[in-house]
Write a structure and sequence with these properties.
The chain is of the alpha+beta class. It has one domain. The protein has seven helices and ten strands. The chain has a six-stranded antiparallel β-sheet. A two-stranded antiparallel sheet has the order 3-4. InterPro entries: CHP02117.
């Protein structure tokens, strides 16, 4: 029994040590800037980094020269089917979290386990907005066309496509009347979360970002004045 107790003690200490190391590493790396490039003078495209307190989205203008996002993610796929929105927020995450956990009180142990260990499928969440207001969880940032193209490529590379088009997730789990879900590549895990996806997008576009982030706070720290 003593040997069993000792083994269990080591396991518990190992888990606690891992959690402490994870938290410290995430905090430090998410706040260390990954950007070393100077800001150019041709940054005229307004984008936003927006959080709901847990999950971050990148918000882009729907129409930009040759690209109209409503042709990629049709308004008809939303519940409201309204048109004429000005902005589109997009985020990546675990499909189980997106569809089965609208609020934290709905979280199941099985959903958390599958997500934490990268066993589930992923999805892209697209939300339309008429206006965007900056606050403690939403920050505007201006980029140039090259940066915008980098974001577009990153988003497309994250989508699971069929005949070159995004695959709509057929569900009634939309959060409101102006959003929809699409199949995506990759798997969510404790080392690659929804916020990690956002952070990599920002790095690809030479926008302020951390070296590695799994929580929204580290990402937003680069935009707070």
């Amino acid at each position: 029994m003593k040997k069993i107790g000792k083994v269990l003690g080591y396991i518990i200490l190992g888990i606690i040590g891992f959690c402490v190391l994870y938290i410290v590493a995430e905090y430090c790396l998410s706040r260390l800037s990954a950007s070393s490039k100077e800001i150019s003078s041709d940054q005229t495209i307004q984008v936003f980094v927006k959080s709901n307190g847990v999950h971050t989205d990148i918000v882009l203008p729907i129409v930009m020269k040759e690209l109209d996002w409503s042709n990629v993610f049709p308004y008809a796929n939303t519940v409201g089917k309204k048109t004429g929105y000005r902005y589109m927020g997009i985020g990546w995450g675990d499909k189980g979290f997106y569809l089965d956990t609208p609020e934290w009180k709905d979280l199941k142990a099985s959903t958390a386990f599958v997500a934490a260990f990268g066993l589930g499928e992923s999805a892209m969440h697209v939300t339309y907005y008429n206006t965007i207001e900056e606050d403690d969880l939403c920050f505007g940032y201006k980029i140039n066309e090259k940066q915008y193209r980098a974001l577009v490529k990153y988003i497309y590379d994250s989508l699971d496509l069929r005949e070159g088009k995004p695959i709509l997730v057929e569900t009634d789990a939309q959060y409101d009347d102006a959003d929809a879900f699409y199949e995506a590549k990759g798997a969510y895990s404790m080392f690659y979360s929804c916020n990690t996806w956002t952070n990599y997008a920002l790095k690809k576009a030479d926008m302020p970002a951390g070296i590695w982030a799994t929580l929204d706070k580290g990402i937003l720290s680069h935009y707070r004045k």
